[in-house]
## 1
Amino acid sequence: MKQLSMHITDLCNEKCGFCVVGSPLAKTDSVEYGDLVRFLAENAGQGYTSVNLHGGEPTIHPRLFELLRAIRLLEYPRVEIQTNARRLKDADFTNRLADHGVELFVVSLHGSTSVIQDCLTQTPGGFDETIEGIRNAKRAGVAVRTNTVITRMNMGRLMDICRLCVDLGVDHVNISNLHPVGSGFFALDMQAPTVAETRRHLLPVIEMMAQSPARLTLEGFPLCVVAPHEKLAIEDGTRSIRMMYQGKVLDDYDAFMDTQMRAFGPPCDGCPLRARCGGVYNEYAERRGWQEFGLQQPSPIGG
């Protein structure tokens, strides 16, 4: 996969306390529309198989359909939108997006009920709108991939979230490690699970999803944390992502994450998974240390 990825707005209609972009803190938008179009034009014809639009919340951008028309004129073959899907509750809006070439919605879904989701996103009524948005996307013939960030608030409901995704006909379920940057930096102590907590709740879900028609991937986890399921890591070396974020261009997003956002510590020395692993988020290691990591840790499954 060779993808062009664009952060098109800092603004959002939710206030997730673990937002890596820090959208709840944004009062104005730093992104210039002209920069987005120039980035698209400069990379046209370079073999990119898709354009991924993200934010903030892309669906609230006032010039979204204009941007989608530009993508089509420049003959990019596929468009994806990362979204909380709240605006997709409007079926006509969703159908317009499909008509403008959107083939995948990557939907943030962090709860199986409104009690959890609306609390995490600080958006009363948001969960119901997201669920209706997913249904409208499927009715419009657009594929859906969900993204769920594991937190201490939702980790006990992770299996319920995945069952809900299957019931909704979601094509692909992605589960993400909480990245403690942006608003997430302030959420680390309260919301980021420990390695033991993550494994206790995540490993049974992986086993359950193996019997599901939906694809499952894992994102942002050190491989020792998800072993023996390290092959589910979405950062599997097969994707190439060139990203523009607030005017800055990252030629290789995964390499940037590996070299700038994550690190290796003493437990990583000699680990057989290290060559394929991206490491541990810097802020997590700085705050909690390295003692949790390493393949020598016992599995919490069964006690």
## 2
Amino acid sequence: MLIVNKVYKQHQKLWDGCYAMIFGEENSGKFNNKEGMVVWNRKIYAENREFMEQRVRELLKQNVDSILTSSLAGFTSLIGKHKPKAKISIVFVPLQGVKIGGCDQSMFVLDLMDTDYDLNRVLTEGFPHEINHLAYEPTRATDPDRSTALLNTIDEGLACYYTYKYFGGKITKHRAVENMTEEEWDWYMRNEKEIFTKSKPYLLESSEKQTPYSCNCGMHRGKKLFEEAPRTVCYWLGFRIIEFYEKKHGAGSWKDVYELPVREVMAKSGYEDYINSL
């Protein structure tokens, strides 16, 4: 009953609406019912006790409450009216796929079982990125293109751009976009025209459709439009669109993106005109 009440029911939307969905039908039963949750929760600590206790010690050293409070205060100070609302879950799960993030604006998860990241960087730089998603996505409820790959692109690009602005120049653009290296950023810049030209036909497709572009966004899997791309194409492309919007409309105008339909953001950014001039 402890597992059911404290682990499953306390975070049921996360298990049912996120983990049970992203890991496929063959794994959904591990997360979307009491019995499945009990089976792996009874085993995971017994089999990974030393590792899990070490990870918790690492987490406690980070002063998570202070980092999160600072991130929230920084968002309020910079953006103002849009306030994120979500339940935060810190978890150990048997399948890795969500390091930090969630499946909608009501949830925020940090998976300590996954060690393929620097915990301090994820907390200090990942929190601002995810907080922006939690605040921006509710504003898209009436956007005519809310289900398109363009919205995913602007959503991810804005989260990266907000993170860049949040740190006030203390981190580079490439670091703000998926913690890229300078060399990785340079690859995107060298291939900018081809990236946009090949991506454009898919931007107004459904974000749920398995297109060569959409598989570069979110949880989609499949053939990528750019196999050689070092990171996720739509994060970088969204960042560039918003960067051009601010260049065209003046300092601070990037905040318009929280209010505008994504198609209007794209049109007013002047980014396509820039691409056509190359």
## 3
Amino acid sequence: MSGNMLGRKAINIVWIKRDLRTQDHAAFQAAENAGLPYIAFSLLEPKQIEHPDTSLRHLKFIYHAVKDINKILAKTQGYVHLWYKDAREVFSFLSEEFEIKEVFSYQESGTANSWERDKQMKTWFKDRGIIWTEFQRDGIIRGLHNRDGWEKAWYQTMNAPLIQNQYQTGKMLRIGVPFELSMHLKRDLENYSMVFQPAGESHGWKYLYSFTEKRGFDYHLAISSPSKSRMSCSRISPYLSWGNLSIKQVYQYIKNHPNRYEHKKAFNAVLTRLKWHCHFIQKFEMECRYETECINRGYDLLTYENNPELLEAWKHGRTGYPMVDACMRALIATGWINFRMRAMLVSFLCHRLDQDWRKGAYHLAQLFLDYEPGIHYPQFQMQAGVTGINTVRIYNPVKQSKEQDAEGRFIKKWVPELSRTPKEYLHEPWRMTSLDALFQGMKNKSYPDPIIDLETTGKRARKKFWSHKNHPLVREEAARIIEMHTKKN
């Protein structure tokens, strides 16, 4: 059915952003309850894609999540379009073909780039008399200036009834437009790595089911291990980041699951992290400048060596430190590593290599399949030690290696150059001489020597970051941050 055939028929719109699901979806509910037929779409916007935080793996996840939605909606002839065009051009086209009455969507706590787009669209809708209703996402409150009552409101939101979406057959329109995905782009998006977590609502629920049925029983015990965490962690972070599951759905499912009684410590640890998930997004919603500026402006005064060769070695997992390189290579290949190893990668970048955190933030954003701006930038800065309110943790990659991968299974999997290295050398392969390598049947030492010295860089980083915490501007900013983001009684 084309727009021309319909003429200037009155319709509504559901504009899907990071809410790629069919249930507990307020925008779909509003459109279904309204009297008009509606068009639902998600967009791959060139102006957003060009932003350096976006990668092809993100677009692939979106593409396959939309395919999953359409499979679910097929029984009611529902269909969510995925178009390659900027929002303003899409709405301009649709407004010529149809009489748009209302637009329903969720608020997006994204970067300044998406925020500017939304402000422009708000003006565009208002000028044309189109009502745009934006629903609150996951207990994140727009326009908040401090945390008075935020935690209480979040719990109220999480415990409110879930939306049980119902879809009327034929109410969601399927139309033809000149900005459908090209065959070339479709081929790129279809080619989805088998080692990435499968995208979409259906798969999100499978991961949640398996976590609560067995996988998550040792969650709190194995969370720091780069190997064990791949199984024991919930692994639902991509589904939360792209809205395949809502925070409320996950919160209520875990909270009310019968296995929680026997595994309360593990399940409660996840529930706590769901709140922290939203806590960081709320911080970013209040100050999205965190993408490019230090949370604590006092740390913008710091200077860094910013050696480009060291940065490239870090990006490609060629630092000479097995755990650092294994984590980076695992991340490049699969799109996921556990939290402790993420923190170690950031610490190594900023504290050991003396790189400004901004040099690596977009690189990891592109690699994380679960990239969520509201979590990524505040967390990146916390691990980089530039908040002025959190403890500066300078990770020792050898210590982490020995504690979290004592047998070296993770290292040998992702750094195959070391697969035949004896255990006594595995965490510090530079200690192995050429003769040692020869005795082990290793014809050459293809793995690089360390690009920095841990003792030297550790002393430098401790002096640099710990002393700067007493700078007057850092202290002033720390007080401001605490005032803004600390719960009030």
## 4
Amino acid sequence: MDAWLVWLVLAVVLGVVEVFTLTFVLGLLAAAALVAALLGAVGLPVAVQIIGFVAASAAGVYLVRPIMRRQLSRGPVVRSGVEGLVGRSAVVLQPVDRDRGLIKLSGEEWSARSIDEDLVIPVGAHVDVMEIDGATAVVYPREALP
């Protein structure tokens, strides 16, 4: 049996086992075995294939795996509660100025005030929530006001 075929079988076995363990190590070793199989398929000697396998394994385990683990450990950023309302759009129900107002935000009525102290936002205008200050949404109009 040719050496490249042995490397190919090893790559498949390691890949299948990786699917069940999810360690990221066996998958990288499977990729290294594929590198060795390619080296064998082009006719390079077994010693070169082994060196290629070791180099590809080391590169995968010491360079690629930490990056993969870091990316997967972050997880999606999920904002909830009042943090989840920042950046959302709302509709003005009562005029909003620097002191008071009322908006409809995520299906609920919220007290609101304008982030720009000199601005009065009329009823029906669409606004973006810039921050939540206690129980008050601090807003700014989406479009220029007339």
